């Protein structure tokens, strides 16, 4: 076969690599195993997508979505039909396919059919995204012959977007969901509240959004999402097997809430809204009961909007809250999350207080983070807390690529594309057992990111490294990954993604 195969099979590092044709060797994230064989499957005007064998409405929906994604680039009609067998693209749920796990799939391609098999609709969705990448970025074509058997390394593969520092609409976020889901990212963490803005409607405390939503960094108008808009986004993400993780950041990062309700302030006076970029200056008043009414009401309403498992309560940079008050506050906030049937996620500072049993910690340290802080997170992992890794000097998409990057910050250093990719989440934090790593997440803070163009420029192509680290078996190999990343350029271009042509990527 002329196509290079995926990493871990018989890839020839440094060997010649075909430029134009899509092949198994270009898949990103790299699949667990590839066996090329025989001639492939030619898509043509008569090709149909078959979802019928199980009569399952969700499989049908996955088929319709895949058809929608393929029609544009291929120019083919690709009707979705319920008649099973008979060739074309076939989606098959097979509950007895134990090697495939909750998200895995098998893709078998031959002259008669391309068959996608999975235990779950999520697996079929991921299989469909692989199939997209086996076709050229534009035009119909041939899906190469052979079998891909694939499953993720980590259960949690997330991206975070801060819609508090700068407001983004649900339509803009849906576009990001589409961009991410095609690379098998399965979690979208939304940073909904911060000093500069409160972005989600709360019926019991309406001024949070109506007043607290009316500001953003730099003095722009801000904005907020209604509950219907939020539900619509959650549904849209769920159809792409992306779980939304809402974050209400507490007890710091709350100026927008304090500005909206004087009664939340220890002195009973509401501060003005804030449009700067400092952190660590605001705190809920941990000594008054009204604060806990607020916490309960807000978490109850956000939990009710959330079909997913997780509720993120922030807990970072609470430098305006004394340590003992912080711990006592986080105890009660975590109890509220549990009352509403959700699992706590907190930034890793929660490890310095009393994380509730099962609470997930999100580590955002970096190479220069102190040893004691790292050890606390590793110890929490050993004690059974799952850890999401978001090292700031690897995965923070708001860090500049290099000195020439216009948007972005650099407090954790510059993060070139290679650096974002070249580390192993399973062996990253000393003393943290590999089994405690729930996964990886790439946060995009938006103090300096105000538009869709900025967002795409900072996220792409670095977020593809996140997708690869989260899904594919390690360890990373830049010589192998770089060309595979470069091969995504025509796909990103075809989708209008305004990615950064970073100088460390071997673009063709
Ligand atoms: C740190 S990381 C923050 C955010 C900032 C970000 C900017 C974390 C949990 N907190 O408040 O937006 O740095 O890079």
Automatic annotation (TrEMBL):
Q: Does the keyword DNA-binding apply?
A: no
The chain positions of domain Glycoside hydrolase family 20 catalytic read 154-320, 327-473
Q: Which family does it belong to?
A: Belongs to the glycosyl hydrolase 20 family.
Q: What is the uppermost EC class here?
A: hydrolase
Domain Beta-hexosaminidase bacterial type N-terminal per the UniProt entry, residue ranges:
26-151
**What name has this protein been given in UniProt?**
beta-N-acetylhexosaminidase
- Provide the catalytic activity annotation: Hydrolysis of terminal non-reducing N-acetyl-D-hexosamine residues in N-acetyl-beta-D-hexosaminides
Q: Where is this region: Disordered?
A: 6-25
Q: Which E.C. number(s) belong to this protein? A: 3.2.1.52
The keyword Chaperone is assigned to this record? no
Kindly give the CDD domains that the UniProt entry links to this protein. Answer: GH20_SpHex_like
| Origin: domain of life | Bacteria
Q: Which UniProt keywords apply?
A: Glycosidase, Hydrolase, Signal
């Amino acid at each position: 076969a002329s196509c290079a195969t995926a990493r871990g099979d018989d890839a020839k590092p440094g060997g010649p690599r075909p430029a134009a044709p899509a092949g198994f060797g270009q898949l990103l994230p790299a699949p667990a195993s590839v066996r090329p064989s025989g001639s492939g499957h030619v898509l043509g005007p008569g090709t149909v997508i078959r979802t019928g064998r199980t009569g399952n409405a969700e499989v049908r929906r996955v088929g319709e979505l895949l058809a929608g994604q393929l029609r544009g680039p291929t120019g083919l009609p690709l009707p979705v039909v319920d008649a099973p067998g008979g060739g074309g693209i076939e989606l098959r749920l097979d509950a007895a396919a134990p090697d495939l796990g909750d998200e895995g799939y098998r893709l078998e391609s031959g002259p008669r059919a391309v068959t996608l098999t999975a235990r779950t609709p999520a697996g079929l969705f991921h299989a469909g995204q692989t199939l997209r990448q086996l076709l050229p970025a534009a035009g119909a074509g041939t899906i190469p012959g052979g079998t891909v058997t694939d499953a993720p390394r980590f259960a949690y593969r997330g991206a975070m977007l801060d819609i508090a520092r700068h407001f983004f609409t649900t339509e803009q976020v849906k576009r990001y969901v589409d961009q991410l889901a095609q690379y098998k990212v399965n979690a979208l963490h939304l940073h909904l509240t911060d000093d500069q803005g409160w972005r989600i409607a709360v019926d019991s405390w309406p001024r949070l959004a109506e007043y607290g939503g009316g500001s953003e960094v730099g003095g722009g108008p801000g904005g907020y999402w209604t509950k219907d808009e939020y539900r619509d986004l959650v549904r849209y993400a769920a159809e792409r097997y992306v779980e939304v993780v809402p974050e209400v950041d507490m007890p710091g990062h709350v100026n927008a809430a304090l500005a909206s309700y004087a009664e939340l302030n220890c002195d009973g006076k509401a501060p003005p809204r804030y449009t700067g970029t400092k952190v660590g200056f605001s705190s809920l008043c941990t000594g008054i009961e009204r604060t806990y009414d607020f916490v309960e009401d807000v978490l109850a309403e956000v939990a009710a909007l959330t079909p997913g498992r997780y509720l993120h309560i922030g807990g970072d940079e609470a430098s305006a809250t004394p340590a003992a008050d912080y711990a006592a506050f986080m105890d009660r906030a975590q109890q509220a999350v549990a009352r509403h049937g959700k699992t706590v996620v907190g930034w890793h500072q929660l490890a310095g207080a009393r994380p509730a049993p099962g609470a997930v910690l999100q580590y955002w340290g970096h190479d220069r983070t102190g040893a004691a802080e790292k050890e606390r997170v590793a110890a929490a992992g050993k004690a059974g807390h799952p850890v999401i890794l978001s090292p700031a000097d690897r995965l923070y998409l708001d860090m500049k690529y290099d000195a020439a990057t216009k948007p972005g910050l650099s407090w954790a250093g510059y993060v070139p594309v290679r650096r974002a990719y070249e580390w192993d989440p399973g062996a990253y934090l000393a003393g943290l057992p590999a089994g405690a790593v729930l996964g990886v997440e790439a946060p995009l803070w938006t103090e300096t990111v105000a538009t869709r163009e900025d967002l795409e420029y900072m996220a792409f192509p670095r977020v593809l490294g996140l997708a690869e680290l989260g899904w594919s078996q390690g360890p990373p190999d830049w010589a192998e990954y770089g060309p595979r990343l470069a091969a995504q350029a025509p796909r990103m271009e075809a989708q209008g993604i305004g990615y950064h042509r970073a100088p460390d990527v071997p673009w063709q």
